[in-house]
Automatic annotation (TrEMBL):
The entry's keywords: Hydrolase, Protease, Signal, Thiol protease
GO biological process entries: proteolysis
Record-linked InterPro entries: Papain-like_cys_pep_sf, Peptidase_C2_calpain_cat
Domain spans labelled Calpain catalytic: 211-491
Protein name: Calpain catalytic domain-containing protein
Active site: 220, 430, 446
Signal peptide: 1-21
Record keyword Lipid metabolism present: no
Keyword Zinc part of the UniProt annotation: no
GO molecular function terms attached to this record: calcium-dependent cysteine-type endopeptidase activity
Domain of life: Bacteria
Coiled-coil ranges per UniProt: none
Amino acid sequence: MKNFKSSALFLSLVSIGLTLSACNSGSQPTATNSTSSSNSNINIAESASSLPQVSVNDLKQIFNALAADPAKTTINLESAVAIITGNDQAALAKLKSLSLSGYSAAVANANNVPHVTINSTPTQAQYNEALFAALFIGDVTDSSGSDGTSDLGQITWDNTIKNLGMVSHRFFGGYRLAQQDYTWSFNPGTLETIVNTPNQIGNLSDVNFLNVHQGAVGDCYYLSTLSALIYQRGAASVLAKFHQNGTGYNIDYTDVHSVASQISVTPVTDLEIATGAYSAGSGQWLSYLEKAYGDVLMTPEYSFIYFGNTPVIAGSIYDLATFYDGMIASQLPVGQYYPAFKFLTGHEVYEFDTVSNTDDTLVNLYAANPNSNNLILGTKLSPSNMVNLIDPLLAQGRVMVLGTPVDTKELNGATDSTAVDLPPGIVGTHAYAILGHANGMFKLRNPWGTNFTPAGPDSITNGYTMNDGVFYVPDADVFKIFDQIDIEQIPGLDKTPVVINGVVQKDSQGNPLFNQGSSSIMDSFVTSNGAYIKNNYSSDIAVPLSNNH
């Protein structure tokens, strides 16, 4: 397999010096493949007709109850998000009180779906919520292009009928439908997710990277960073971020100005649990962390880093009240690893990408020039040299994440002459956590929790055996597949900017001051803030926000 990337495409995804990487939630199809899951011989390209179907009459009752137009054919997107996030309690109560007649049949059918286990009998209210969540995901995520765009689908009766198979699949769960088969993965249903998630934060055994399962939200880069953090720091470090605050939690994070902060997060709703990441029934810790990150990402400090400014784009998720509201719509904009690393670890990140269409050489993308507004290609590093760096860097406890190319055949069409042909079971515009490196093999995890069995021996041609998202890739293959690696910077070991009260300190000539590190491993590379310290930390935006946003 020849792996190459269009530099023009890559540079088109760069804005004011920020590398942007779309994130695949596995909800947008463009290709077909009949590969089987390692858990069964079920063909992934199974038809929608082979799965249970939700009640059309019940869906119509939901429209009749919640649609605002006279014809009762359109549920306003913002209104739907307000119901999901619990901000419209009256509408949520109306939804939960509906006497939908398909309740008993749906519960019976759910228990007959292969590999779906519901721990207790759902209530009528839980059924109603799960059906609404499936309706929402099925309509919104199946109406626009691949994940990473800012366009939203509409919740209309026509879309619901057109996407009835998708709505049913999202409700019941099971193996992906034919139009999603490039994901090779298994979806928990919205009913299963609501019923099986206990109403508690979780304990040390619950906080496990194997319990991170991406939902309809395209935040793979965040969930992979979180998974790598759990691997390197352990569950206790994650639970230590939570502080009980009435019925919700204050959650610790670090803002982009390196100021330790907290955000107050209201209790997650059943609908938020159903539409976001799934913790495999291990409690609500993952839902809270996803919600906290989404809310913080729309504050001025983070949106400046993420978008370059505070955006207001008509008809996109940015119209919604918070970024998490947009995340629920499964339409994250093209994303960066930097804010995820900063939020979770409090540290900067080294970022390397392959920008050449002639080889796989990794480039440290950001120049050290603090006055640079644009991308300036930095130090180059061969894939073999990067592989040699991995062991000592992992030994220092660094969080690391790999990313796949944006332009791939499975996303953009098999006939696209510039598209990368990835191995079966690995998808484009997606983030994978590094969970170790030994004996010439990288241990990685897909946040979908994918299972996959290659048609032949593990190889770059056949793909790699995956169990619950965990798989192993040889050193020789890793940078033929992945075109980006992000590596946590460790203060004390690395050169870091001098920051006081959230402001980078500068000398009399306006150049930033740096603390020198004790480790020489990364001396020749710059962190992801190297090219735009001046912009990110200028006096007009560097005033730290309140610790309780």
